[in-house]
Amino acid sequence: MSTPQHYEFQAEIRQLLDIVIHSLYTEKEIFVRELVSNASDALEKLRHLQLTEKEIFDDRLPLEINLTTDDAAKTFTIQDFGVGMTRAELVENLGTIAHSGSKAFLKALGENGAKGANLIGQFGVGFYSAFMVARRVRVYARSWRAGETGWAWESDGSGSYTIEEAEGQRRGCKIVIELKDECTEFSLAAKIEEILKRYSSFVQFPVNLNGKRVNTIQALWLRNKNEIKDEEYTEFYKFQADAFDTPRLRLHFSADAPLAINALLFVPDENPERLGLLRAEPAVALYCRKILIDPRPKDLLPEWLRFLKGVVDSEDLPLNISREMTQDRGLIAKLSRVLTRRFIKFLEEEAKDRPDRYKEFYRRFGIYLKEGAALDHTYKDELMKLLRYESSLTKPGELTGFADYVSRMPDGQKEIYYLVGPSREAIEAGPYLEGFRARNLEVLFCHENVDEYAMSHVHAFDDKRLLAADHADVKLGDLPAPPGEDALAGAQLQTLVTWLKETLGNRVAEVKGSDRLVGSPALALNADKFSSPHMRRLMKAMKTEGADDSPPRVELHLNPRHAVIKHLAAAREAKPEVAKLMAEQVLDNALIAAGLLDDPQKMVARIYKLLETV
Ligand code: ADP
Ligand code: MG
Fold this sequence. Notes:
Elements: E1 5-8, H1 11-22, H2 30-52, E2 65-70, E3 75-80, H3 87-95, H4 100-112, H5 117-123, E4 134-142, E5 150-155, E6 160-165, E7 172-179, H6 189-199, E8 207-209, E9 212-213, H7 230-241, E10 249-255, E11 261-267, E12 283-288, E13 291-294, E14 309-314, H8 326-353, H9 355-375, H10 380-384, E15 390-391, H11 402-408, E16 416-420, H12 424-429, H13 432-438, E17 443-446, H14 451-458, E18 460-461, E19 464-468, H15 490-504, E20 508-513, E21 522-526, H16 533-542, E22 554-558, H17 563-574, H18 576-594, H19 601-613
Parallel strand pairs: 2-8, 12-14, 16-17, 16-19, 20-22
Antiparallel strand pairs: 1-6, 2-3, 3-7, 4-5, 4-7, 5-6, 8-9, 10-11, 11-14, 12-13, 15-17, 18-19, 21-22
Helix pairs in contact: 4-5, 8-9, 9-14, 17-18, 18-19
Adenosine-5'-diphosphate (ADP) binds at residues 34, 38-39, 41-42, 80, 82-85, 93-94, 98-99, 101, 126-127, 173.
């Protein structure tokens, strides 16, 4: 037996330990994660050596991690049969700052001059986190190399440590933590089990607590997908997402470039925001080699993918990745792009190969894709290809996409037309569709709340502008007048138009005769985009200061073949007072159809007056 030899910690380690020991960092439990991850690394290294080395000490030992708690002695012990350490390695690995997480921690500390406590959580301080809870730490280590002996390393975390020979050691590492009085909860099996479940459920080596296996759920995402049963996926999803449903869709994939990734993504059965109350929180967990880095990383996926559940594991991430460091942010951004592109590709395949299933997905989650198309420039083009709508050419309940719409466009059509309304029925009953139908032009029907907003933001598809069919910018080509019907003659129409402009005053921006109409006497077109029905409702609801209270200014289009318009022209000369009432009423009716009539009260009084004249 040799006598213990004294060593001083390197200055940086002393500084680090000082902070770790005296910090008031509350989540002390992360020390379990750090030690389990070290044990798992050591086993991984050994497994690798077994492939290349002929002679390994104690080669029969199982690759597993054993934790024991002793609440009488107030100790916590973790033991592995990994690579272990030689004396020189103990000095090098535990006495000097070899580890990137600790380095980053100290660097941030130097830069911020901060107290350190909150930085511990961000960077992780690896092995030294044990000193948050330990009065004394003993590390028994025996290297895998033949001809080595065992060693006992010991420290109370203040400045120095000792190393002495320890006989009878098996391969690997055993770390015994004597707990501080205020940390004795970590000598309770139940407490440790709870922590292990949270952070280390998917460690690939068996983790035993007091002789009982804890991590029974395997890292499903690393297994070959041909060997995984549906039930296993579902069980994993429920465990991981804390859910009770069966996932609607799943994507299990791996990639090697530009990053090594294994990912398993789930779409839940239902849209969690469907009641409009709760905003979904990002819930795709980030792992590095089966060790949890962050259960809810914020920037891993774009906002509009916040409904996804699952895990992403990348070997290329440092275990103590931080969102603050530019270098790490770059990695996360890269990871995000790979995941998002792959998920979009997956949806494209779904839409093509399993349209019915895609439709069901789209019915519940399409709103997120619309949001993404409108707001996320990076993925706009891909997302637009995934959007679906009913249209004037589909049967009720059937959906079509922009690409199909474009493929049906007749020669000469340059724009993509859509109409926003509360339902298909409402849109079809309005006056706007007639002119498009008569010209065989397809109109997309939008009846979700986000549609108006989304449509005006996506702006174009395939260089074709998206245009609301009730917008004044829409120019429809001439149609031959339906035979056998006499329209108001040009001069008569012109007089009527001039008179209407005068009579309706600033309620209209423009009045004109139109070919757009077939069965209706008149229609109103939005003269500017801010008076769209949706916008007006929004402004009214918010009662924004400076919101425009004046009636919307519209273009009024007249159907010169319609009986009502012909009557109006006749009344203008014969009964000017009644004609005035009629003119106002024609405009109000058009506004109702446009969803733009703000105040129906006046109209009721006017109708009674009109009825008196009949
Ligand atoms: P990191 O794990 O990021 O390298 P740590 O501070 O957690 O940093 O550990 C420092 C070093 O100590 C490790 O790199 C490893 O070389 C060594 N070490 C820690 N735990 C073990 C263990 N159980 N078996 C073998 N070596 C270990
Ligand atoms: Mg570590």
